[in-house]
Write a structure and sequence with these properties.
This protein has six helices and no strands. The protein is an all-alpha fold and about 110 residues long. It is flat. The two termini are about 30 Å apart. The model has no long low-confidence stretch (mean pLDDT about 90).
């Protein structure tokens, strides 16, 4: 995972410089870096990146970004549970549930997971 982390950091710097910090490709790279960091048990840094990505996707507001908000909330909730930060994890999971219900409807299976 160490090599993957180095490569994602390099790509992220390049995309931030070329595309800006809120471009969808930049945010995808950031999220992938956070996943690698999570795999390496670098949970604090992974959490920070997930939160930054969440904020950017929420601000963008496109339909694609709405889906990414849901994915990022799931990842952030998982990291918070791994950190035993159950109060924050519960808040994130409630926000996730609300977003899923709004996007997919209450009866949709994605709203229930």
């Amino acid at each position: 995972y160490g090599e993957a982390q180095r490569l994602y950091r390099r790509v992220l710097r390049g995309r931030q410089a070329a595309l800006g910090g809120v471009h969808s490709q930049t945010l995808t790279t950031a999220t992938r870096l956070a996943t690698v960091l999570e795999s390496q048990h670098q949970l604090g840094e992974a959490e920070a990146i997930y939160r930054q990505s969440l904020q950017a996707h929420s601000a963008n507001g496109s339909e694609i970004d709405r889906v990414e908000v849901i994915r990022t909330l799931r990842s952030l909730g998982r990291v918070l549970v791994k950190q035993c930060n159950f109060g924050s994890a519960e808040s994130v999971c409630r926000l996730l549930m609300n977003n899923c219900e709004e996007m997919y409807g209450l009866a949709n299976v994605d709203s229930l997971t």
